[in-house]
Amino acid sequence: MHSEQLVQIAINALDDLKGKDILTIDVRGKTSVTDFMVIATGTSGRHVRSLVEDVMLKVKEQGVIPLGSEGLEGGDWALLDLGDVVVHVMQAAPRQFYDLERLWQGAEQSRAQTLVQE
């Protein structure tokens, strides 16, 4: 599966469960760790966990096995490693504190556009 398709699956899953301020950062050529980062805000620890778990479910339905996840037990910030795509979901305060958008300000960033399924 192409990275862009994986990004769109993650975005749609996050949007379906009302993830806030979904942002995609294209880090190809800027790091060897991943191609894209998808960042979203959850409103509570439970919401953060639910968002990440739903992304995990949706990618597994497409035959993609996540490489790992972190932070699901805490709920302030959870990470899902899909290889070419890393999904960060955090509550508002940690998102503002760590400010990944500013850290990757030289990379192309775009607010999420969800696909309309017909």
TrEMBL record:
The UniProt record lists the keyword Cytoplasm? yes
Single GO molecular function:
ribosomal large subunit binding
What are the record keywords, sorted? Cytoplasm, Repressor, Translation regulation
Q: Name the principal localization, coarsely classed.
A: cytoplasm
- Gene Ontology CC, one term: cytoplasm
- Residue span of the signal peptide, if any? none
State the compartments where it is located. Answer: Cytoplasm
A GO BP entry is: negative regulation of translation
Q: Which InterPro entries match?
A: Iojap/RsfS/C7orf30, NT_sf
What functional role does this protein have? Answer: Functions as a ribosomal silencing factor. Interacts with ribosomal protein uL14 (rplN), blocking formation of intersubunit bridge B8. Prevents association of the 30S and 50S ribosomal subunits and the formation of functional ribosomes, thus repressing translation.
Q: How does it assemble?
A: Interacts with ribosomal protein uL14 (rplN).
The family line of this record is: Belongs to the Iojap/RsfS family.
Indicate what this protein is called per its UniProt record.
Ribosomal silencing factor RsfS
Q: Which gene encodes it?
A: rsfS
